[in-house]
Design a protein that fits this description.
Blueprint: H1 2-16, H2 19-44, H3 48-54, E1 56-59, E2 63-66, H4 76-82, E3 87-92, H5 94-107, E4 121-125, E5 130-136, H6 142-153, E6 161-165, H7 168-173, H8 178-199, E7 203-207, H9 226-241, E8 252-254, H10 256-264, H11 276-295, H12 311-340, E9 344-345, E10 352-353, H13 363-385, E11 391-394, H14 399-415, E12 417-419, H15 428-448, H16 454-482, H17 487-507, H18 517-533, H19 540-545, H20 548-568, H21 571-578, H22 583-587, H23 594-602, H24 617-623, H25 630-640, H26 643-647, E13 648-650, H27 651-657, H28 660-670, E14 672-673, E15 678-681, H29 687-716, H30 721-749
Parallel strand pairs: 3-5, 3-6, 6-7, 7-8
Antiparallel strand pairs: 1-2, 4-5, 9-10, 11-15, 12-13, 14-15
Helix pairs in contact: 2-29, 4-11, 5-11, 6-8, 8-9, 10-11, 12-13, 13-29, 14-15, 15-16, 15-27, 15-28, 16-18, 17-18, 17-29, 28-29
């Protein structure tokens, strides 16, 4: 009865909610979300720097998340590279001095906080020609004004970045009197035009005063209350923002430190000065504001403008636009013809007469329709990860964010199960199931940022290895059993593996090696094909007739193993091979092929490893290939030894397994963000709802791309050899043109 109820319920759900209706719903959701974000950008502005300087929240205890964008954590080398030949000046009181020290420690972590605190403090890094000064001016008065005035008159001494702020000393010295506030307003009014003049050629930031923790303040600071600080901040914002007429002030308000202080001031030692972790966050925000537009880090989307379209991207946009227009014209003509041939009613009998028989869909219509859909999907990809329309956030790992979704999908996978069509080991349903649950775990691993947790990282390496094992096993089994080494089979596989990635390389302006998994499975497919196709071609039918052929196959595989070991331990030879043009255009990343060598060497066997056998990633990655196939073979045995286990499979996991490659690739840009470094935010302020909606759209897109790829593969890769050779010539010409355009782009960039 339970099984009957389950089947009836599933049919009822499928009747009202199919994959097609889900995709329509996803399309409507994308249009609505795009319209909402576009309206929000127009209303609130499109400057992510303002969000970085004014808003955000803590993820956990110490990770700061700006509103709508991602913040990069700058390393020493990056900071020096950005600030080479630059002069930065911090001017203000002890709180500004704290910010100065934290900023300098990004450049030089060994810089010590010592010396007289109430005097100027210089810092210079001669290797990078970076100069950072702190100027002690604890009050907004004539002394501060004179210092700023000198900069306006001397273009040589003028800093590139000026960070200023003061108020607590005025409150303290004058015992929080109203006269002191009035004087503060007058003084800041007098320096506002000078700051505005500097801001035309330099970056000028006015740091608003952070709140205090009044319970910890000493007796001589009790007059510094949060009420007084708010009054001084309001005065500074009002005067500096109104210092220019009919235009927006160029002096930027650094108000985000207030939000940081509200969460961390309780950890202060004296109630006035922020704990070190908080000022480090403020210093890193300053570094992001200035350096992101210079270095353009992938995971630092704040303050970065939309990247300009390349020539290849423009040509791709023209192509997809032409396909959309062509399909619309084709559709209109076809619809008008259908209306003319619409069944008419016989006046005598009252019955309809059919004038024509439905004609089959032509290859041209399928081609135009597929590219039309693909063009719209690529527009969504571009909007998500290049156009800065949707928001992005940094990842933040917690054990619950990884393990709770794992438990949830495990329950769903066990609940949805069906009988297999066959019970042999590693049958099709079982391998789809295996790919499906592995892909879902990998997706959760990526979005939760679980790579920071070593045991999880190592188990995911096992899953990647297992996926490669399945790919190699599937291709080997096909060639071994079928003996089909024809060019049509090879082209079909290569097309299905690489079509989406090639399109993304063009549309998203990314190198082929960026989507590292596809090069891996492509190269290993070709290795298996070449090994088995070379003379003598040994297949199952031939080997069953003579045991000698089994020995020949083992000999082939032995030579292959030696070749793999040679390349794995000869980095120089490996890099020389793959640095040759045009291979270098496919396998280079950031100007070299090291990343490709690392990925290939890490996943050169089908293997796994016990996660607790090493203590750090470097050691794990070194041991990982050496400890071979134990876990994978163990899983295969456990999954197949019981007869019942071979006769059932999880239809839930198998459904995802059929689109696992598309899921793996699409996550880069429409589920994650900033090329997998962050998370796409479609619905801000509600992380759970955002994950649900973005995942729903992401899965629908991946499924549609899988169908588009299958449809195009049937048209572009025909079975007729003469037609196939012509298509291959056209594809070769296309890639030659792409290489030429890529070379032209590279020269223009340099």
């Amino acid at each position: 009865m339970a099984a009957l109820a389950y089947n009836l319920g599933k049919r009822e759900i499928n009747h009202y909610f199919s994959v097609r209706s889900a995709k329509v719903l996803a399309l409507v959701a994308v249009l609505l979300l795009a319209a909402c974000h576009l309206a929000s950008r127009r209303y609130r502005g499109n400057d992510s720097c303002e969000y970085l300087l004014s808003s955000g929240r803590f993820l956990g205890e110490k990770v700061w998340q700006p509103h709508s964008c991602m913040m990069h954590k700058y390393k020493i080398s990056e900071a020096k590279n950005c600030l080479v030949d630059k002069h930065i000046a911090f001017i203000g009181d002890s709180r500004i001095r704290q910010l100065f020290y934290s900023f300098v420690k990004i450049i030089n972590p060994q810089f010590k906080e010592e010396g007289n605190k109430h005097e100027n403090i210089p810092f210079e890094d001669k290797t990078a020609s970076v100069k950072v000064d702190f100027l002690w001016h604890p009050e907004v008065n004539g002394s501060m004004k004179q210092c700023i005035k000198v900069w306006t008159e001397d273009s040589i001494a003028k800093p590139h970045v000026i960070v200023a702020g003061a108020a607590t000393w005025s409150i303290k010295i004058h015992n929080g009197s109203s006269e002191a506030l009035s004087q503060y307003k007058m003084n800041i009014t007098s320096i506002a035009p000078l700051l505005e003049k500097l801001a035309k050629t330099s970056d000028v930031y006015w740091v608003l005063q952070d709140p205090v923790y009044e319970d910890l303040l000493s007796e001589n600071r009790k007059m510094i209350t949060n009420e007084k600080i708010d009054a001084y901040n309001e005065a500074a914002v009002s005067i500096l923002n109104s210092s220019t007429r009919n235009s927006k002030s160029n002096v930027k308000m650094f108000s985000v430190s207030k939000l940081i202080a509200q969460e961390t001031i309780m950890e202060s030692l004296d109630g006035l000065h922020l704990p070190e972790s908080s000022r480090e966050t403020s210093a890193m925000i300053l570094m992001n504001v200035y350096c992101n537009k210079i270095l353009k880090p992938v995971d630092g989307s704040c303050c970065q403008p939309r990247p300009p379209l390349t020539l290849i991207q423009k040509l791709a946009a023209c192509f997809f636009t032409s396909c959309i227009i062509g399909y619309l014209i084709f559709y209109i003509i076809h619809r008008n013809a259908h209306r003319k041939n619409k069944p008419c009613t016989d006046l005598e009998s009252g019955e309809e007469k059919k004038n024509i028989i439905n004609t089959p869909v032509s290859s041209l219509e399928i081609l135009l329709q597929s590219f039309c859909k693909l063009g719209l999907i690529m527009a969504y990809f571009y909007m998500c990860d290049r156009a800065n329309l949707f928001m992005k956030e940094n990842k933040f790992y917690t054990h619950s964010s990884f393990f709770i979704p794992i438990i949830y999908i495990l329950v769903l996978g066990v609940f949805y199960n069906e009988n297999t069509k066959e019970t042999k080991v590693l049958n099709r349903e079982q391998t789809d199931e295996w790919k499906g649950w592995m892909q879902l775990v990998i997706l959760i691993y990526h979005i939760s940022g679980a790579s920071t947790f070593l045991p999880v990282y190592m188990h995911i390496r096992v899953l990647v290895a297992a996926y490669l094992f399945q790919t190699g096993y599937g291709h080997f089994s096909y060639f071994w059993i079928k003996g089909d080494f024809g060019i049509h089979r090879v082209c079909q596989v290569l097309f299905r593996l690489n079509f989406l990635v090639v399109v993304l390389c063009i549309v998203m302006d990314r190198p082929y090696q960026f989507y590292y998994f596809v090069p891996l499975v492509t190269v290993w497919f070709m290795v298996i094909y070449v090994t088995l196709a070379l003379w003598p071609q040994i297949i199952q039918k031939k080997a069953n007739g003579n045991c000698f052929w089994h020995f020949g196959l083992l000999l082939k595989l032995g030579f292959l193993l030696l070749f793999i070991c040679f390349l794995a331990y000869s980095q120089g030879a490996f890099e020389k091979i793959f640095s040759l043009w045009p291979l270098s255009k496919c396998f280079e990343l950031k100007g070299n092929v090291y990343e490709w060598w690392f990925r290939w060497r890490l996943d050169r066997y089908t293997y796994s490893i016990w996660a607790s056998s090493c203590k750090n990633k470097a050691e794990c990655n070194e041991l990982h290939p050496s400890v071979s196939v134990v876990q994978i073979l163990a899983f295969i045995l456990i999954r197949n030894i019981p007869g019942y286990a071979r006769s059932v499979y999880s239809s839930f996991f198998a459904w995802f397994g059929k689109i696992s490659l598309e899921l793996f690739i699409c996550q880069y840009h429409i589920w994650l963000a900033a090329d997998t470094r962050g998370i796409l935010v479609l619905i801000p302020g509600n992380p759970m709802l955002n994950i649900i909606v973005s995942t729903f759209i992401f899965v629908c897109v991946a499924h549609e791309i899988s169908q588009i790829t299958n449809d195009l593969a049937q048209i572009i890769i025909p079975k007729d050899n003469s037609s196939l050779l012509k298509r291959l010539a056209c594809i070769a010409a296309f890639f030659c043109g792409l290489l030429i355009l890529s070379s032209i782009q590279d020269k223009s960039k340099h």
